[in-house]
Amino acid sequence: MLVTLILAPPPSGKTEEPRQLSKLWGKNGELWSPRSRLPDFGWAGYRWGTEPYRMPQQRVSVKDFGAKGDGQTDDTAAFQRAIQAGKGKIVFVPPGKYVLRDILYIRISNTVLQGAGPDKTVIIFAKPGVEIDPRPAKTDGNQPTTNWSWAGGLISIGGSPTKPIDVTKVAKPQKRGDTSLTLEKNFFGPGDEILLTLRDDDAKSLLHYLYRGQPGDISGLKNWYVEQVFRVVRCEGNTVVLNRPLRFDVRAEWRPTVERFAPPLTDVGVEGFTFDFPVRQYAGHFREVGLNPVEITRFAAHCWLKDLVIRNADNGPFVSGYFCTLERIRLEADPERRSQSGNYTGHHGITFGRASDCLCRDFQIDTRFIHDLTVQSSVGCVFCSGRGVDLCFDHHRWAPYENLFTDIDAGIGSRLFASSGGDTRGNHTAGGETFWCIRTQRPVRWPASLGIDSINLVGLDVADAAQAVPVLPSPTDLTGRWCEPIPPGKLFPRNLHEAMRARNAANR
């Protein structure tokens, strides 16, 4: 009889250091509850993070519509013809270099613009946005500029606004963390997706609530509203039981309504490209000319951007909408692209603006933007598993609420919380912003500049942690500073989004 012996490796002499756990989560979420000051980030991303991208079965090639891909010929018309003919299909772009001189609009669901990979398929945007569609604008400081400075993309994904369906009022108040809504009329059944909307009153009490009573100057924020999407688990008369907790209190003065969630465009993807802009020195803040590769507008849901290299851009992707995923996005720039000061090569790197439950993961920023990662007016969005040279987590005012930055190598750490935005648009962030397992080469300080003491720092090297947060509040207290300066290399779990998603999957 043959006996196989499996020998353990000899001891290395090193003892593995124990992992450290947060008082807000524990090992597997046993310390967390829907009432926690730590929001639920487990549902962010395409199709709630529960299924792979829905890829069309049919495809067309831009070569069949006259595209050359020789780096010289203007292939814009061929791309436009291919997208028109390829509605609901994969529009494939074979290896080559394709020159585009106009905006590409993708306005039909289930359409995927697919390259052969960023090392094989290159799109050269030869004409900036301001030369195609000028879009004049002014900054909050009344400085002339163009809307391309902070929005827009030369590939534009999104539908047209549609009339709400099955609108009904919410009949009774609820608390943040509750998992049901009682409606005046119930049009819905198990499996339906619904959209809850809250609208501010004349006293701006909704904004005060979002900012946990610390709004700053909100004179420039008018007619504010917030939204959250749910899936109906079951119905008990006019009460619908929800698949996840409410992010907000639901109060009568905020005129809460529910409607069927029916986004006008879904399941559009752009993947497998290098987007290249001709090298020109970055002119500086608000002098951008629209070297912007791609946008997902707010009239879209369940869309994705994947495997993209973006070179020498004014801005990276601008993403609004619901449940969109960005993965493996790399931003880079040639040395000649640097501004005269040598500090920056663009304005915004990756931006979630008026986005809900969107996810950006596995990103890489190999240059410096004025704002590398931006959240503005976004709710429940996640940046995770990325790295950069010296990242800036830009909270751009306009009430970003309950967003997460987790498992990120932020590089140097000299400007981690540097944020911008107009002075009358509220403090830089509203409540619930969470920073979890962020690695920096130098210690950071408590981000007092964000203007609010209702955020969470866990797993950061915070130099003044003991002075800034001498005592932790209760885990269910939504106000007060929370800082657990656990060394990022020892914190478990490293990626809070993935841990929450796994917990949600286990409880479904």
**Number of DSSP strand runs:** 33
In the CATH classification, which architecture of the largest domain applies? 3 Solenoid
Strand content: 25-35%
Rough shape? Answer: globular
Oligomer type: single chain
Which CATH top level class of the largest domain fits?
Mainly Beta
Mean pLDDT: 95
Task: Look at the structure and name the CATH superfamily of the largest domain.
Answer: Single-stranded right-handed beta-helix, Pectin lyase-like
Main structural class = mainly beta
Give the biggest sheet. 16 strands, parallel
Distance, first to last CA: 48 Å
Helix content percent band = under 10%
Q: Treating each run of at least 4 consecutive H or I residues as one helix, how many helices?
A: 5
- Rounded to an integer in angstroms, the radius of gyration calculated over CA atoms is 24 Å
Count the domains: 3
CATH topology of the largest domain: Pectate Lyase C-like
What ranges have pLDDT less than 50 throughout 5 or more consecutive residues?
1-15
Key features?
disordered N terminus; 16-stranded parallel beta sheet; 7% helix; 3 domains; Pectate Lyase C-like; 7-stranded parallel beta sheet; 508 residues; 33 strands; mainly beta
How would you summarize this macromolecular structure in one to three sentences?
With 508 residues, the chain is mainly beta. The protein is built from five helices and 33 strands. The protein is globular.
